[in-house]
């Protein structure tokens, strides 16, 4: 059997199905299954998911995330965060007009929130691993914020685990870590 390069959105399930049900086992039929997970690349899905977070779009965020989501967000708490209610609150607060640009940002000394519309994200060093119906996306998230003093860029490393649920990708786990050399122990620890 020869190996062929398939389009990025070709489903591994399609290859498996074709091998099981085709009369010639050495032939791969390019029988595309029309599902969200096979028609939209993982990266496109991930970027839509992240954009929903930055836009404070709770409906889109919930549509792309499982209810029992687990996360580690080092800049929020050293403990695991479970479920969506925490982020529902954070996103709702960040969207309010009288708060800082992002939920954990302090208000500037002027007391006036930043212009929230001047924010973008990029995925640096993007790496994707696929295993059957699971995708692991690892990258450095760059968050650029434009303001009167110029553009400031924040970054941290992030991994998101996505699972294909009957043709629809959903985020099931997120792990964030600093992109700077963090100390082995917390400052002041002995």
Question: Could you explain how this protein is built, in words?
Answer:
By secondary structure, the protein is an alpha+beta fold. The radius of gyration is 20 Å and the shape is globular. The chain has a six-stranded mixed sheet. It has two domains: 1-33, no CATH class; 48-178, Nuclear Transport Factor 2, Chain: A (Roll), CATH 3.10.450. It has helices at 12-21, 36-39, 42-55, 58-63, 85-95; strands at 65-73, 80-82, 119-131, 134-147, 150-165, 168-178. Helices cover 24% and strands 35% of the residues. It is built from five helices and six strands; from the N terminus they run ααααββαββββ. Strand 3 (119-131) and strand 4 (134-147) form a beta hairpin.
Defining key terms:
single chain, alpha+beta, Nuclear Transport Factor 2, Chain: A, six-stranded mixed sheet, 5 helices, 6 strands, 24% helix, disordered N terminus
First-to-last CA distance:
61 Å
- The fraction of residues in strands falls at 25-35%
CATH topology of the largest domain: Nuclear Transport Factor 2, Chain: A
Overall body shape: globular
In total, the number of domains comes to 2
Main sheet characteristics: 6 strands, mixed
Mean pLDDT reading: 76
Cα-based radius of gyration, to the nearest Å: 20 Å
Q: Enumerate the strands of the largest sheet in spatial order, edge to edge or round the barrel.
A: 2-1-6-5-4-3
- DSSP helix fraction: 10-25%
Count of runs of 4 or more consecutive helical residues = 5
